[in-house]
Amino acid sequence: MKRYYLWTIGCQMNDADSWRVAERLQSLGYAATRRPEEADVIVLNTCVVRQSAEDKVYGRLSSLKPIKQRRPETVLALMGCAVGEDTSSLQQRFPYVDLFVRPSDIESLIDFIAGRYGSADYQQPAFSAVHPVSCCVPVMHGCDHLCTYCIVRLRRGSQRSRRPAEVVDEVRCLVERGAREVVLLGQNVDAYGHDLPDRPTLAGLLKAVHGIDGLWRIRFLTSHPADMTDELIEAVARLPKVCEHIEIPVQSGDDEILRRMLRRYTVARYKELVAKIRRRIPNVALATDVIVGFPGETEEQFMNTYDLLREIRFDVVHVAAYSPRPGTAAGRLPDDVPPQEKERRRRAVEELQRQIAAEINAQFLGQTVEVLIEDRHKGKWRGRTRTNKLVFFKDERDWRGKLAQVQITWTGPWSMQGNPAQTSSSPGHSR
Question: Which of 286, 313, 324, 371 could form a disulfide with 383 if both were Cys (CB 3.0 to 4.6 A apart)?
Answer without folding.
Answer: 371
